[in-house]
Amino acid sequence: LEEVQEDLQLMMSNPEKFLADSSSAIGSTKNYQSLNIRTDILYDREEETSTLLEVFSQISSPSCTNRSRMVLISGYSGTGKSSLVRKLEHEFIRRGARFVSGKFDEMQQIQPLSAIMNALNEYCNLLAHDTVHIDRNRAAVEEALGSEGQVLAALIPNLSRLLAETIGGPPLAEVSGREAQHRLAFLIRLLLRSTCSSSNPIVLFLDDLQWADTSSLELMRSLVTDASLDKMLVIGCYRDNEVGPGHPLFDCLDAIRRYGRTSLISICTSNLNMTSVNALMSDALRMLPRATWSLSEAVLQKTGGNALFVTEFLTSLRDEGLLRYSLTHRKWEWEIDSIRSRMIANNVVDLMTAKLLRLAPEVHQALRVASAFGAHCLEEVLQIYDTDPCHLSSTVAALDIAVAEGLMAKVDGPAYRFSHDQIQSAAYKLILESERESFHLHVGKSLWQQSSEDEIDEYLFVIVDQLHRGACRISDHEEEIRLAELSLTAGRKAAEMSAFLPASAYLQAGIGLISDGDWEWHRELCFDLYNWCAEMEYILGKFDEVKAHLEEVIKKGRTLREKLRAYYTFVQSSGSFSNTGDAFATALMVLENLGESIPAEVTEFDVQQELLATQALLRTKTEGELLQLKPMSDIDKLEAMRFLNILLLYAYAERKEHFPIMSCRMVQLSLTYGVCKYSAFAFGAYGGSICGLLGDISNAYRFGKIALTL
To answer: Are the beta carbons of 308 and 78 closer than 8 angstroms?
Structure first.
């Protein structure tokens, strides 16, 4: 009796779900003949939902300040991590949040900072479309970023819609390496600080962190440890079975914990239990839970309760006729013994692959192409690919069929995105493993040949990534050289974005394409590849790799000019790795060849001579003349200033007796040959020297002011 009452209660509370109008025509039951898989319902996720909303309430409270928050959602693929966040997206927005997201991609790890930059571009688009607060948003961004906003706008196109057009003005400071990375992170933090508040907090959702590149992880760490960004909630999802000790993500999270300014909240999503699987079945079949229990038991046994696996397995049962809608009985029926005995794929990827094979050949091919790019692909890239005369069918048109089948979604970009990573994996398996390198090479060549110069620049990383995946199939060495040149361009562009690991990967790939004979026929390309690669590895702290690449450059170089860049990187890296002895020895040898002899062992007499020579030159110039010195144009002296500049840092730290000699020599060169960007440091260091050695405080102050003016 209790069971009957329970069923009746369910019918009364959900008549549209459990009660079809049996007196009407059969056509009215057509909705009942399709599976009603509810993407708007999260099964057995009440606790996780409550946690996320509670954390959001904290960051949106005016009284909660000076502590940033990050929620980490872990679990196996297909357990509903992303769905959990997406389900709450509209609730966050309803409460005033600006919700933006970025998704890392296993196939696009080499494309630097793509996920975070996409999210920030989406964020700036939201700011630009906020018609109520547009003037306030523009003023806040302008005040926070100033002229350096143009640095960010180069990476975040929609930011330019919030910035006033700048004509003229002072040139931006030229920085590189770690300095560029720090500037980028700082500017992004300024942008977010200036535009988030308790009434309009930011929710930044970063999906698939297990595939994040190190540059993105460092930027994420910079954001979540900024106490001033206490009105921003970062939500990160990752597959815990694909990360472990030593994984870059774990290293990043450890650094965040050690910093102590961020509250890290962990949520673990597990597989569905029997009750939840049965609830899903009841909803999908519009049948009472008691009636679907036996089917749910069989499905749970086959799938382990993985949410994605459950829904795809259910779909496959319908496709194969083991689950069917009976027009006679007006309900779903199944062959439970056949389902229990059915052989099933070991995972959802194999199950999906079998499903994809039942589609039309042109859809197969389109899915293969799309999967080669990863979880998503821009429509414009696919349109470029379709312009290749050897492609007879339209990839875009075929993917629209995949969208109709629910395998892909059309998203802003415009772009095509696989509905789940596992569907992308299944589509990628349609390409035979033995053919994948050739397939990627074909895709890359089509894009390269069919793209305009502007399109190559815009989609450079996409094109180079495809070509690199198939580079081992290139048989023409001239083609290898052209790809090496393109790899150099990609490496330099990534370096400008402060994405040093991807830059290193592009450059390493380029080096792998050249041979020993190319040092004769493509000399500049070889030097550029090796020098750029060594510089990236220096930034990444890979001293052994730096040394190996620099030794090759120095061995192949015939003149000092060809070796200078390598020598400078060697001095930088040696000093950074506490080997100042080698740094000094190399730099002094180079300076000798540039006509600026500095003694290896400094005496008090040497210091006095340099001070006297500098003072004599300074007496010939008024302060006005010092500020009107011509720019330095002598190439050798510019190089000498560069080496002296870096040696000043090492001298101050470990060889203080050299410090006044080098500062004096730099001032002498500036007075004789003109000023350069290192002259400001030279005058400041000279002021410090005469203050410390001669007690000349007034002139030290004077030269400090000149240094600031320069």
So the answer is: yes
Q: Are 434 and 472 in contact (CB under 8 A)?
A: no
What are the CA-CA distances from residue 503 to residues 250, 424, 526, 561, 677 (Å)? 23, 26, 16, 25, 26
**Proportion of the chain in helix, strand, coil states, percent, rounded to 5:** 65, 10, 25
Q: What is the DSSP string of 94-147?
A: HTT-EEEEEE--GGGTTSTTHHHHHHHHHHHHHHHT-TTTHHHHHHHHHHHHGG
Residue 262 neighbours by CB distance under 10 Å:
21
> Residue 27's pLDDT is what?
44
Token duo for residue 173? 């400071």
HEC per residue, 311-372? HHHHHHHHHCCCEEEECCCCEEEECHHHHHHCCCCCCHHHHHHHHHCCCCHHHHHHHHHHHH
Give strand pairing partners of 206. Answer: 102, 236
Distance separating alpha carbons of residues 11 and 517, to the nearest angstrom: 81
Asked whether the beta carbons of 162 and 137 are under 8 A apart, the reply is: yes
Q: How far apart are CA 333 and CA 37, in angstroms?
A: 17
Checking 453-460 for CB contacts under 8 A at 24+ apart, the result is 455/384, 459/378, 459/381, 459/384, 460/486, 460/489, 460/490, 460/493
256: nearest Cα among 289, 287, 218, 294:
218
Task: Give the CA angle between residues 643, 646, 652 to the nearest 5°.
Answer: 130
| Residue tagged 């290192």 (tokens) | 678
Please report the pLDDT score of residue 351 as a whole number. Answer: 75
Q: Are 646 and 538 in contact (CB under 8 A)?
A: no
How far apart CA 526 and CA 488 sit, in angstroms, is: 10
Dist CA 140 CA 402 (whole Å): 43
Start-to-end CA distance of the chain, whole Å, equals 92
- What sections of 164-209 are H helices per DSSP? 177-195
DSSP 668-693: HHHHHH-B-TTHHHHHHHHHHHHHHH
Report pLDDT for 303: 84
User: What is the token pair recorded at 361?
Assistant: 């050949």
The dihedral through the CA atoms of 353, 355, 356, 358 has a sign that is positive
Is there a cis peptide before residue 171, judged by omega within 30 degrees of 0? no
Helix 543-556 × helix 560-576 angle, to 10°: 160
Give me the residues of the chain with pLDDT under 70, please.
1-8, 10-33, 66, 108-112, 165-177, 345-347
DSSP-assigned letter for residue 174? P
d(C-alpha 646, C-alpha 588), whole Å:
12
The arrangement of strands across the sheet holding 415-418 comes to: 376-378, 415-418, 408-411
Residue 401: half-sphere exposure toward Cβ, Cα within 13 Å: 14
pTM (2 decimals)? 0.75
